[in-house]
Design goal:
The protein is mainly α. Helices cover 87% and strands 0% of the residues. The mean pLDDT is 94.
Length: 61
């Protein structure tokens, strides 16, 4: 019984940690998109592609 309870607690903690990491990754992507949008000069081709990719990812979740 004790091992099962410990396993449940571990799985619960892991689930919370995974959710936290997912949210941190999403926030990081949002900050990157914000910085690309805020640029005054025209974006390089790779920056524009990255911006579009990140926006698509963020809107699909």
């Amino acid at each position: 019984m004790v091992a099962g309870k410990e396993l449940n607690e571990f799985q619960s903690m892991w689930s919370i940690k995974k959710h936290d990491l997912d949210m941190k990754e999403r926030l990081s992507k949002m900050r990157l998109v914000e910085s690309l949008i805020a640029k005054q000069e025209p974006l390089a081709e790779y920056e524009e592609a990255l911006k579009k990719k990140l926006i698509t990812e963020l809107l699909s979740n």
